[in-house]
Amino acid sequence: MHHHHHHSTPSSNKAFLIGATINIAYVIIEATFGFLSDSLSLLADAGHNFSDVLVLLLAWGANILASAKPTDSHTYGYRRATILAALVSGVTLAITMALIAIEAIQRLNSLMEPHSITIIVVASIGIVINFITAALFVNHKDEDLNVKGAFLHMIADGLVSVAVVIGGITIYFTSWLLIDPLLSILIIIVIAISSWGLIKDSFNLSVDGVPTNIDIESIREYLLSLPDVSEIHDLHIWAMSTTQVALTAHILRSSNEIDDDLLHQAADQLREKFGIHHSTIQVENGHCELHCQD
Asked: What is the pTM of this model?
């Protein structure tokens, strides 16, 4: 039996700290001026930005937990905390957007004129802050679901802030009050579309689904291509964290010789070609009558 361990996690803690700090400050500013100017689009964006602060804080905390060493009671450590953080963030975002949608629909029947200049200025600040925050995560967005979630949220926020600025300009020149609640609804639709993939992927990982970037058939073909391997069974692939994937498999070999070099090579190839960070391969000689059923 061979075990291969590889526990490298991108260090994004500084990015999470900076991103959370500047976004907390902006949420306070945006919510305050949204209330004072009676702008639902600003309040909607502030609500979403607040959920993004939670995303950043949860991801940051999960990253810290994931770096903790394994113990006898938690033999994989706390890596799964990163998956739970992504799932909680997605659910929190969905609830926040549902509440804003209800308020936007109610506002359609009771239009109020917001202060357009305030909307333009505050939302313009939001454009700068959101895109700066997104830039903090661009280097690791393809390596970690939490980092990818933070990056996508910030890009979406930046685009939403652009829409809010356009709405403020429209109100200033045309006094078309309907634009404010309509933009709020548009914000919710954009966020729902951009966030659905994150919610779906985080739920999939939380129930031990095969990560979407893993091609299980290609892995099965690779293991069957190893010298003297005639059969593979009980192949399981799951995520230990948002950055680490584990694999266990039983392979049937005709050779009675234990080939440690072959197993080391297989583990290295699984890591380099398929992104499997922790592999355990059990070698069997002859037909195994007691195959695992789980």
From this structure: 0.71
